[in-house]
Write a structure and sequence with these properties.
This protein is an alpha+beta fold and 240 residues long. The chain has ten helices and four strands; from the N terminus they run ααβααβααααβαβα.
């Protein structure tokens, strides 16, 4: 399918046929999702591909027994892992150091490596660290002072950063759904679920958060609730 056809094929399907789908194709679509853009390439996400019937049944209950869950052949749980920021920053320092050695003139390599070490070794850990909101207050005070003298990002509270992590994960979820559509598989992003039960079922650590759960399958005739409706484009499009 063309990209336009993929966009139009994808619908939120709330009832699936009792037909199996290829787990390897779903896994491939999850792999495609990892190519989604994300903030500072931190990749603070994990993807739980659920194919076990018993776990699917437990998740269906945690998803309030909505049809999109109870009829799903498989599910993918998109999880944010802000608590892994230290591990991710180390990987990024390694990656960017390799990129500098590979792509930068020799005379500029030392300076650029220092820049990346500062960014991922100091700035990112300071931005992503959490301590009962206190670090967020400190960051807000600093940026408000700096903002007097030059443009700066003001969204640095602990809640602001949490939003960024979830936005990043949502971009991966959207990429996954489009990849599934390209395989002519259907999906439904679900935000109606008991997050405590889901974390318990998947044995997730305290620092993990559920971004969304996406059910997967092949649409039943009654799986799509009517024609697609969107607010008129003229109302939402603002050209400046």
């Amino acid at each position: 399918m063309t990209f336009n056809e993929i966009i139009n094929f994808r619908r939120s399907v709330r009832h699936y046929k009792d037909l199996p789908i290829d787990s390897e194709k779903v896994k491939y679509c999850i792999e495609q999702a990892t190519l989604a853009p994300n903030s500072s390439n931190m990749q603070l996400w994990e993807f739980y591909h659920i194919t076990n019937p018993e776990i699917l049944k437990k998740l269906s209950v945690a998803c309030l027994d909505q049809k999109a869950a109870t009829t799903a052949q498989q599910m993918v749980v998109f999880v944010t892992r802000q608590d892994l920021y230290k591990t991710r920053t180390k990987k990024m320092i390694e990656l960017e150091t390799q990129n500098v050695h590979k792509n930068s003139p020799t005379l500029k390599q030392e300076k650029r490596i220092k820049t990346w070490n500062m960014y991922y070794g100091k700035v990112m850990p300071f931005l992503y660290s959490r301590f009962w909101g206190i670090w967020g207050i400190v960051r807000k005070i600093l940026v408000n002072i700096i903002g007097i003298f030059r443009p700066i990002t003001y969204q640095v509270s602990e809640n602001d950063v949490r939003v960024v992590v979830h936005k990043t994960c949502a971009l991966a979820a959207q990429t996954f759904m489009l990849a599934m559509a390209s395989e002519k598989y259907d999906t439904c992003p679900m935000e109606g679920f008991d997050s405590h039960r889901v974390k318990s079922i998947l044995k997730l650590p305290c620092g993990a958060e559920i971004n969304m759960i996406i059910s997967c399958g092949i649409r039943d005739e009654k799986g799509v609730w009517g024609d697609r409706m969107r607010i008129p484009f003229s109302e939402v499009y603002k050209r400046i």
